[in-house]
Design brief:
Layout (H helix, E strand, L loop, with lengths): L5 E6 L2 E6 L10 H15 L6 E6 L4 E3 L4 H4 L7 H17 L4 E5 L2 E3 L1 H8 L2 E5 L3 E3 L13 H9 L1 H10 L3 E2 H7 L4 E3 L4 H13 L3 H13 L5 H15 L3 H11 L10
Parallel strand pairs: 2-3, 3-5, 4-6, 5-7, 6-8, 7-10
Antiparallel strand pairs: 1-2, 8-9
């Protein structure tokens, strides 16, 4: 399927999605978000795509925010459709049964920071800048900013960033735990690909169950989470990859997983 606002390249088990509105610094509008949801649905059932990388086109922005021009004249009723489209796209990223890596170059503000936080890994270039500046527009984050940012960096720092609308640089984001790694701008995509290749060599079913189990830790009690973990652990023993992984361990060789 052809997309107006996205590029997708597949290579060596990786699906590399580029958010492609460079003139608008890749600002999120309804059309891009709908396309992203559709593409994620395709990738979810594509056995050749084992890891996803999401990045932005150009050298200035991952995503500079949501499209203010689209939102400006909406009412409290009509804006719900826009933010629901955004929320659904982020939830598809978060719940995709495959690892998702955000390769963040330049601005990741507002909706861009929210999208990045939905990914499993965040690798930032040295010129990356993060923030939730919605307060400066007289609004608040609406696609996960108050929720995911609080869970990732704690309530005190989340309040500071959301109440002030201030931006932080990549080094500060790393110190807060908002990103996993900071690399030179020229190395960003290669670093993301290297991590993606490492993950693509693992068992796909095991990765999917590990992701689902970890995600449940945000949403359930410890007892419920432990029950889910035990269930996913047990189900892994119904896969060919479990047989191959344990045989390879005993035989002292590298496992060759089949994602089955």
């Amino acid at each position: 399927m052809e997309y107006k606002n996205l590029l997708c390249q597949k290579e060596n088990g990786l699906a590399i999605i580029t958010l492609n509105r460079p003139k608008e610094l890749n600002a999120l509008n309804s059309e891009l978000l709908s396309e992203l949801s559709s593409l994620l649905d395709e990738i979810a059932v594509d056995e050749s795509a084992r890891v996803v990388i999401i990045t932005g086109s150009g050298d200035r922005a991952f995503v500079a925010g949501s499209d203010v021009k689209e939102m400006q004249n909406k009412t409290s009723i009509t804006v719900r459709e826009f933010v629901l489209t955004n929320r659904k796209a982020n939830e598809k990223i978060e719940n995709l049964p495959k690892p998702v890596i955000a390769a963040i170059n330049g601005y990741a503000l507002g909706g861009g920071c929210e999208l990045a936080m939905s990914c499993d890994f965040r690798i930032a270039s040295e010129n990356a800048r993060f923030g939730q500046p919605e307060i400066n527009l007289g609004i608040i984050p609406g696609a996960g900013g108050t929720q995911r940012l609080t869970r990732l960096i704690g309530m005190a720092k989340a309040k500071e960033l959301i109440f002030t609308g201030d931006m932080i640089d990549a080094a500060t984001a790393l110190s807060l735990g908002l990103v996993h790694k900071v690399v030179p701008q020229a190395s960003l995509i290669n670093e993301a690909k290297a991590l993606g290749t490492k993950l693509a060599a693992k068992s796909g079913p095991a990765l999917a169950r590990a992701k689902a189990s970890i995600n449940s830790a945000w949403q359930t009690t410890l007892d419920t989470g432990l029950d889910m973990e035990m269930q996913y652990f047990s189900l892994a023993f119904a896969t060919e990859d479990q047989k191959e992984g344990m045989s390879a361990f005993i035989e002292k060789r590298t496992p060759q997983f089949k994602n089955k």
